[in-house]
Structure prediction request, 236 residues.
Amino acid sequence: MKILAIAHDPGIDLGTYEDIVRAAGHELEYASFQQAIAPSQPLHEYGAVFILGGRAQVDQEDKHPWLVDEKRFIRAVQDKGMPTLGICFGGQLLAELNGAKVGPLSELEIGWFDLRVPEEIGVDPVFEANGNVKTLIWHQYAFETPPGAVTLARTDVASQAFRVGDHVWGVQFHPEISPSGLAEWFDFERGHAEIGEGLTRLMDEAPEHLEAVADSGGRLCEAFLRFAESRPQRAW
Prediction:
C-alpha cells in the first residue's frame, strides 16, 4: 500500500513507525497542509492515513489558516472509509471533527503514564494490543470521546484513545516516539519555563520506559496496518 502521513511542524514525524511501515512492504509519503506540501496522488491511491502531532491547536484557525483546508481533507478521508490513525494533535483534529469537545487542560499533562483500558470496550482490531501499558503523554489540549465513539483508553486526567465507526482511531499519547525524536523535542521545548520541571523529569525517566513504549506502540502500528491491508475492495 501507499501510506500517507499528514505532518505539521518539522521534527515531528512518524518516528519508529517509519521503519514499521517500510518493513511491512508499504510506501510512505509525507504531506503537510501547514508547509503547503500536497499529497502527490489522488486520495484513492492511498491505503491508510496517519495524522501526526504538531504545535498548533485545533481552535487556532485564525492563527493557522491552513487548518481550514486540512480539516476539509480529513473529513473527506473519513467519509470515504479510509483507515485513519490520528496521533496527539491528529487525534484532537479527529475528535473535533466528530463532534467532541477539545480544549485546554488546567495544566500540561507530560510524562510517562499508565493507560487504563475500559473492560467494556470488547475487541478492537487495532487497540487490543496496546492496553494497560505505560506510554508517553505530552499535551496541553485534550479531547473528549466523540458522541457515539468508543473510549479505548484514558488516564486520570483525560481520554487517551477512541474509535469512530470501524475505521478511524484517535490517540492522545505518543506511541510512535523514538529516542532521537524525543531528544529533538527536548531541545526545542526546554526553554519554556512552564514545562521545565515536567520535561526534565520526563527525560530523566526516558531510559526506563522508551523500550517498552516502542514495543507496545509498535504493536499498535502493526495492528493498524494489518487492518488496512484486510479492508475489502475499497470504494474511495
Q: What stands out?
A: The beta strands are 2-6, 27-31, 48-51, 84-87, 102-114, 134-143, 150-154, 159-164, 168-171. The mean pLDDT is 89. DSSP finds five helices and nine strands in the chain.
